[in-house]
């Protein structure tokens, strides 16, 4: 019988292994040699793209892709490629979020942000390069032999990363900060905060889970279970992130903290208070665990991932 301690150890090992495999895939995908159809890969741009993508991060989104796909015995190399594509989207979003016109951050993962390490123009172009590379990767036959599956992966990522997902969520966040109109922060109701966070943070986490279902040709019940898991996990992740901004240590987190309050951002922590937010976080973790019931013991590692989200310190 698997004990919680044993499952937690298995989770940590798989998280590490998948991070290493993803790092190796990204290192290869971001290599100096031009791909068929490319004219050249400018060295300065490649340096910036690699700086913003390699050597950091827990690779939690690729982990979710790989572990969700593993429920259906999908070949690991396919899931790793999808995870690498998703990580390109995630890293591009961080590069752009850190820009002076957006969050104006100097540190990311304990290192200078891309625009500080290089310059703003290079940071913008490196983000653009990572964004488009993601769809290049997903279109490749190595991801799945069935073109219909690849099209679904591309279409779903575009939806979750774009206007109605991550990018739209960032715009809602900027609007709430008072970046437009009269320049005054706009108080958000709870449902508005939930919508913003489900788009800005939750959409890519949800995609990570349903991408595994797509790769594995999951049935309707299985797909719905993973979609629900991804949705509530996304909310839990954002609450935990907001709690870290209040209670975390900057050296451990690897970026500035206390910025949400300073910018008067609407979060569930500011709305519900610390205790209320922690209670909601615990409830979402329980809901994430319960959503995996259709997979029985095979879902134990993903359940551990939900607990990891709630307990993380960075």
UniProtKB/TrEMBL annotation:
<dbReference type="GO" id="GO:0005737">
    <property type="term" value="C:cytoplasm"/>
</dbReference>
<dbReference type="GO" id="GO:0004659">
    <property type="term" value="F:prenyltransferase activity"/>
</dbReference>
<keyword id="KW-0414">Isoprene biosynthesis</keyword>
<keyword id="KW-0479">Metal-binding</keyword>
<keyword id="KW-0808">Transferase</keyword>
<dbReference type="GO" id="GO:0046872">
    <property type="term" value="F:metal ion binding"/>
</dbReference>
<dbReference type="InterPro" id="IPR008949">
    <property type="entry name" value="Isoprenoid_synthase_dom_sf"/>
</dbReference>
<dbReference type="GO" id="GO:0016114">
    <property type="term" value="P:terpenoid biosynthetic process"/>
</dbReference>
<dbReference type="InterPro" id="IPR053378">
    <property type="entry name" value="Prenyl_diphosphate_synthase"/>
</dbReference>
<protein>
    <recommendedName>
        <fullName>Probable farnesyl diphosphate synthase</fullName>
    </recommendedName>
</protein>
<dbReference type="InterPro" id="IPR033749">
    <property type="entry name" value="Polyprenyl_synt_CS"/>
</dbReference>
<comment type="similarity">
    <text>Belongs to the FPP/GGPP synthase family.</text>
</comment>
<dbReference type="InterPro" id="IPR000092">
    <property type="entry name" value="Polyprenyl_synt"/>
</dbReference>
<dbReference type="Pfam" id="PF00348">
    <property type="entry name" value="polyprenyl_synt"/>
</dbReference>
<keyword id="KW-0460">Magnesium</keyword>
